[in-house]
Design a protein that fits this description.
The chain is mainly beta. Helices cover about 0% and strands about 55% of the residues.
Length: about 575
């Protein structure tokens, strides 16, 4: 007679079926249990059911089917659904207050790629949210990468000489600012030789019905226009003396706008900061709406020339196993790029901004069509100078870059985006002396004129087989668009033995004196399974958030990550 039943855990090796059960605790969730089961529905459809319980929030359910279809199953669609009747929607572990958050909270998403033929395909990326905080509360992994999901449908026809794309972009979530394109059609002519000759041509023509939609309660006024833009450019690449590459170019752009801003009735004050363009005006409000000035046509003439050459020298006798050298090749490549743009038409401040100037710490492209903010084009004369240094060596029968240094800066003869005479001086360093050591520093300093300072450092070292460490630092000071920062990120993973491992990550912001995040985790190898237990502490400007998580993962399914991640859609992120 059976007198005892011993429990065991079973997992099919069919990748269409799997399950995870993750006990967790987060201070904004309370005691929680996150579960998901993946199973086959048909040969081409897989489903994933989520059933989560959070002590402070309640029960949440989700169903995420993925579908393969079409010829050779090369088309696919992924649907994500999630719903929770939130018991405390205003519970907030950040310093940003919130209000008017509904109790019925949901996320509905569709990602699709349909290949109609070898050269025609369509994509859809659609997300409908109940409120602007649902991703932050329940999809933290995705939120850090894409806090405002887009809503775009596009159809593309490709060809060796051109790409034709139709785009529809709309505001499905009224609490996010969205540049609507209803629709936009773009014909991109790829760079190719005209009639097989030495002159190359490239161009781009687009038509768009544009609307800038602000959140309903923001107090800003929506505006829109139609735009027809066409760009054409000729290039003459050639090599002189067998070593000097010179590529002159000349181009023309014409843009029609159905409506503009009437500057006669607009009051604005130019920003005295030399790093802020004049046309960065505040958004129109309901109290001070835009006075429209009718249609206009703008022309842009551009010309310029790129030049570069390489010199090199080889040292075969440079040998060192300690620093990974088997011969050394030094390649020096000076380069220059002169760009002249003449904008003819209305004052650029009168152009309504859609494809607009976005603040960045990096230098912008000074070529067309690489310079994409069409509505922010102004006249400029910029000369970019630089030199690349590469030290290459042999490793495993391949040529690898042992050390790399890119140095460059701009001479702003006339630059509306930076009114200083010289840009910052940039130095980007990459150093990989050994397969287990990598070091990178991207820096810019105001060496010739006033400006700001940015230094980004990243180092990864695996000094022994069982230990991997990382160190990162971001330093930013004096930029008009971004707050000062001195952020340190350190971490490591240590494999104690065949069964145990530990991981640590710390994030400290020296500018505010906050230890923003601490993550600790322990891993235990259970032969067929890996168990992990970890904790996280976040300091959101004085509001502390705590969490612990336990997970059990089958080794045969590495897509189900064992890293500490409170995202219920985690797939090894």
């Amino acid at each position: 007679m059976p007198v005892f039943w011993w429990p065991y855990l079973y997992q099919s090796l069919n990748d269409a079926f799997s399950f995870t059960v993750t006990p967790a605790y987060l201070s904004s969730w309370g005691p929680s249990l996150l579960t998901q089961v993946m199973f086959p529905i048909t040969d081409d459809i897989k489903g994933r059911i989520r059933l989560d319980y959070r002590g402070l929030r309640g029960v949440a359910v989700g169903f995420d089917p993925s579908i393969e279809y079409g010829k050779d199953k090369n088309s696919w669609a992924k649907i994500k659904t999630y719903y929770i009747q939130d018991q405390d929607p205003l519970l907030n572990q950040t310093a940003v207050p919130r209000k008017d958050v509904p109790t019925g909270r949901y996320r509905l998403s569709l990602q699709d790629r349909t290949n109609f033929s070898d050269d025609i395909y369509g994509i859809a990326n659609l997300t409908k949210l109940s409120d602007q905080y649902v991703m932050q509360d329940f999809y933290q992994g995705e939120f850090t990468v894409d806090p405002q999901p887009d809503n775009v449908v596009a159809l593309t026809k490709t060809d060796p000489f051109y790409t034709l794309t139709g785009i529809v972009r709309f505001q499905a979530n009224e609490f996010f600012t969205t540049t609507e394109r209803l629709p936009e059609v773009v014909l991109d002519i790829k760079r190719h030789a005209l009639f097989g000759g030495p002159i190359f041509y490239e161009g781009e023509t687009s038509f768009a019905d544009l609307r800038l939609q602000f959140p309903e309660s923001s107090g800003f006024e929506n505006y829109g226009t139609t735009r027809l833009d066409t760009f054409h450019q000729l290039l003459y690449p050639n090599t002189y003396f067998g070593w000097l590459s010179i590529v002159p170019r000349v181009g023309f752009r014409g843009t029609y706008y159905g409506d503009t801003r009437d500057l006669g009735n607009t009051i604005f004050t130019p920003n005295p900061n030399p790093l802020v363009p004049d046309f960065l005006l505040p958004n129109p409000t309901l109290a001070h709406p835009i006075d429209f000035g009718g249609d206009t046509f703008r022309t842009v003439f551009d010309t310029g020339v790129e030049a570069s050459f390489k010199i090199s020298r080889t040292w075969e006798n440079v040998q060192s196993r300690a620093v990974g050298l088997d011969g050394l090749l030094h390649v020096i490549q000076p380069f220059t790029n002169f760009s002249y743009v003449s904008e003819n038409g209305p004052n650029p401040i009168s152009i309504l901004q859609f494809d607009r100037f976005e603040p960045s710490t990096q230098l912008r492209a000074i070529d067309f069509p690489q310079f994409t903010p069409i509505d922010s084009i102004d006249s400029w004369t910029v000369w970019r100078l630089g030199v690349r240094n590469r030290l290459e060596t042999r490793r495993d029968d391949q040529t690898v870059t042992w050390f790399e240094l890119d140095s460059f800066f701009d001479v702003n003869l006339d630059n509306p985006y930076d009114r200083t005479q010289y840009s910052n001086f940039f130095n980007n360093v990459r150093f990989t002396p050994l397969p287990w050591v990598s070091f990178a520093v991207n820096s810019q300093v105001p060496a010739f004129d006033k400006g700001f300072t940015e230094i980004d450092t990243l180092m990864t070292v695996q000094p022994i087989a069982n230990l991997q460490t990382t160190f990162g630092h971001r330093y930013l000071n004096g930029n008009p668009f971004f707050v000062d920062s001195s952020l340190f990120v350190v971490g490591g993973y240590y494999r104690i033995d065949d069964n145990w491992g530990v991981a640590v990550q710390e994030q400290y912001e020296a500018a505010t004196g906050l230890l923003e995040q601490q993550r600790y985790s322990i891993y235990r190898d259970l032969t067929s399974w890996v168990a992990s237990f970890g904790g996280v502490i976040r300091d959101n400007k004085g509001v502390n958030e705590y969490g612990v998580l336990f997970s059990l993962t089958l080794k045969a399914f590495p897509k189900f990550g064992v890293d500490l991640n409170f995202d219920p859609t985690s797939e090894g992120q």
